[in-house]
Design brief:
about 350 residues, mainly alpha
Length: about 350
């Protein structure tokens, strides 16, 4: 009679612990975001530091790395960030004008369908669209405030991240040795084997995704510049970021350029040109760039991958979307090793 009670107590305690951990993660989401940013950056810089460490001491290699990053940051502060800030301010000022143009177009379509078949139904649809546009316009102020708050936290992360990255790079070997020392001796080799494989998978994915995002951003910027679409650089950066999201990233990236193109030119030909440009870019990205960057396919189920992206994106935001695929690949590696007997305990040493 005591076993079911003990089991129910364990289940209740587990659920309470999960709720507490979830609440702590939510309350510390900005700290966790800063840590994840630092962790990813340290992951990316570690191979370069290890390469320089063959000729220099680790501290000198880190000093050279930070000197290069300081020069790059100086370039961004002097040229790139002011340019992007000016374009973003211009977009925030002209966006209400774009909405007004859309309202004018919708009102014109409503009047042109006044005498057509199912006119009342069409009029209801157009009225709903106009009401939704008014709601969007009314929320612009709140959206600007929320964006400013988010940018403040991101700025704090950017200030703290270099310090955390420095300590992660300096004490990487000591921390790894300490963690290895706590591993059970009979399972240590299996755990280290799985850890090295997961490390290769995650490192390869993060570096490869950064390369792909950069290529997509450059190609989209050039394509929109040639087509004469407003704000090509901002749209290119947005396309590079959304390329992280599998399957639906291309749709999200194409919506702003299509919107700007139609409002500015008001003809279907420009929409076809923009759609064709995105089709070519993502064909190149999917069938030429990715096979070269990801030489070893992660071979993940598309449905499970999409569900993983949605779930982790809901829980962790941008970092959940970015890390969903490597986490899924890591879980697959762990499951394969568990089913393959990698963690079987080593036999005890023979008695003398």
């Amino acid at each position: 009679m005591t076993y079911p009670t003990s089991l129910s107590v364990r289940i209740a305690a587990t659920m309470i612990a999960v709720v507490i951990v979830g609440a702590l993660v939510f309350e510390l989401r900005h700290t966790i975001s800063c840590f994840l940013l630092s962790f990813v950056l340290a992951y990316l810089f570690e191979p370069l530091v290890s390469l320089m460490e063959r000729r220099l001491s680790r501290m000198k290699a880190i000093a050279i790395l930070y000197a290069g990053l300081a020069l790059f940051s100086l370039f961004c502060l002097i040229y790139l960030i002011p340019f992007l800030t000016i374009r973003w301010e211009a977009l925030s000022h002209t966006f209400p004008l774009y909405l007004q143009k859309i309202k004018t177009l919708i009102a014109g379509l409503r009047e042109s369908n006044r005498t057509s078949y199912a006119a009342e139904e069409w009029r209801w649809i157009f009225d709903q669209l106009l009401d939704n546009l008014d709601a969007v316009y009314g929320k612009l102020g709140g959206g600007v405030y929320a964006t400013a708050s988010t940018m403040a936290f991101n700025l704090l992360n950017l200030l703290l991240a270099p310090i955390l990255v420095f300590f992660m790079l300096v004490y990487k070997k000591a921390v790894a040795a300490t963690i290895t020392g706590f591993l059970p001796g009979r399972y240590r080799q299996g755990i280290l084997l799985v850890g090295r494989e997961i490390n290769r998978s995650m490192t390869g994915f993060i570096r490869g995704q950064l390369v792909i995002s950069g290529i997509v951003a450059v190609l989209v910027t050039l394509a929109l510049l040639l087509l004469g679409i407003d704000y090509p650089l901002l749209n290119g950066i947005f396309a590079g970021i959304t390329s992280v999201i599998p399957f639906i990233g291309v749709i999200l990236a194409a919506v702003p350029p299509l919107f700007l193109a139609y409002v500015e030119y008001q003809n279907g030909l420009i929409l076809i040109k923009v759609a064709m440009a995105f089709s070519v870019i993502y064909f190149v990205e999917g069938y030429l760039v990715k096979p070269l960057v990801f030489r070893e396919s992660m071979d993940l189920n598309p449905l499970l991958t999409l569900l993983m992206v949605m779930a982790l994106g809901e829980l962790m935001g941008f970092w959940g979307i970015l890390l969903a695929i490597p986490i899924a690949a890591s879980l697959k590696i762990l499951f394969c090793h568990l089913s393959g007997g990698t963690f079987s305990p080593l036999p005890p040493p023979p008695q003398s």
